[in-house]
Each structure stands twice: as structure tokens, then as C-alpha cells.
Amino acid sequence: MTVKFRIGIDESLPTFLDAGRIAEDAGCAAVALHGRTAAQLYSGVADWSAIATLKEHVRTIPVLGNGDIWSAADAVRMHRETGCDGVVVGRGCLGRPWLFRDLADVFDGREPAEPPSLQRVLAIALEHAELLVTWFGEDRGVRMFRQHGGWYTKGFRGGTRLRPRIMAVTTLDALREVLASVEYDD
Q1: Angle, helices 118-136/172-180, rounded to nearest 10 degrees
Q2: How many helices (DSSP H) and strands (DSSP E) are in the chain?
Q3: DSSP character at residue 101
Q4: Long-range contacts of 90-99, Cβ-Cβ distance < 8 Å, separation of 24 or more
Q5: What pTM was computed for the model?
Q6: Nearest 5°: CA angle at 155, between 151 and 169?
Q7: Confidence class of residue 111 from pLDDT cuts 50, 70 and 90?
Q8: E-only strand ranges, the chain
Q9: Could you give the 3-state DSSP secondary structure of residue 6?
Q10: Are 28 and 3 in contact (CB under 8 A)?
Q11: Among 157, 151, 177, 183, which residue's Cα sits nearest to residue 165?
């Protein structure tokens, strides 16, 4: 069993060192610390120094770091700055499943591959939608997919205009039409 926790309820009540020791004493296989408090939710910048502090205090099990891993370079930097034994990826992979490929590359000493083009990203997005529809049915699957539309289109020219169109689809065919209408630069 592993345990993931945050720094504490808020800045006035840090509990992460106690939580780490309790997990270690209880025989957990590893602990993961998200470098924010519960009150912060996902705002601000993750405090990686707390991960380093936890690593100094938990000595017999791996300490994993979490928070603000948006790229393979972020994971390498967290590892170097904190001494953590590994990283946990959360929101950073939303709309970017190739992040895991990039992480495997950098931790194996290779340069990560070029990021996929918008055309490739939208093909991945469509496959994601099709899998959701296969699993959950068209109505629920398409509704579930729409929340990912923003993540897939983030950072691409025209993404701001494309997102509302993706959010408005109600069928897989409508999504296919929207994605087929996109003009590509490459």
C-alpha cells in the first residue's frame, strides 16, 4: 500500500512529517507528497522543499513527489531539487498522455521525442472519446470526454476557438465533424 497526502490542511497546520512517519511505521511501501496544502487546492506553486524535507525524515521507504509536473523536464528538476525517489503525475498528463513516454525517455537518459502535432493530438483525442463511448455508451462517454477537450487543445493556435465547439458536441459523430473541420499548419 502507498499513501498520498498534502502538506497539511493549511499553512498553519502542516501534518506531512507526521503522516510520513505514521505511514512508514505502519509498513506502507511508499509515500507521495503533493507539495500544496488542502486549502490551496491547485492554486499557487507546489512547494517542492516540503518534499525534500519529507525525504530527509522518511528513511526506510521511497518518497514520491507530486505537484507541478507538466513536462519531463519538470520531473527531472523535482528529482534533482528534492532527492525524491520518483514522481507522481496528476493534472500534467491531462490531454497529454505522451508525457509518460517522455518521462520514461528522460529517466532512461534519452531526450524526449518531439511533442505531437495538433493533427496527432486530435487523433489521440478522438480515440480517447471512442474508447469512452465504447465503455460508457455514447451519451455518457461524450459528456465525459468534453471535459478533456480543453486539455487536448491547450497551447495550440486556434485552441481557444475550438474548445467551445468541442464542449457543445453531444454525439461522437458531432465530435468527428468538429475535429475534421480543423485546419492544420503542418
Answers
A1: 180
A2: 8, 4
A3: H
A4: 90/34, 90/66, 91/42, 92/68, 94/148, 94/151, 95/121, 95/125, 95/148, 95/150, 95/151, 95/152, 95/153, 95/154, 96/151, 97/124, 98/124, 99/71, 99/72
A5: 0.83
A6: 45
A7: very high
A8: 2-6, 30-34, 63-66, 86-88
A9: strand
A10: yes
A11: 177
Decide: 33 and 90 in contact? Cβ < 8 Å. no
Cell numbers standing for residue 107: 529517466
Neighbours of 32 (CB within 10 A): 23
3-class SS at 55?
helix
pLDDT for res 150: 86
Beta bridge partners of 34: 6, 66
Whole-angstrom distance, CA of residue 120 vs CA of residue 159: 14
Which sign, positive or negative, has the C-alpha torsion 43, 45, 50, 55?
positive
Residue 183 grid coordinates: 485546419
**Residue 77 CA: distances (Å) to CA of 40, 48, 106, 110, 116:** 22, 10, 11, 15, 23
Mean pLDDT in residue range 104-129 = 93
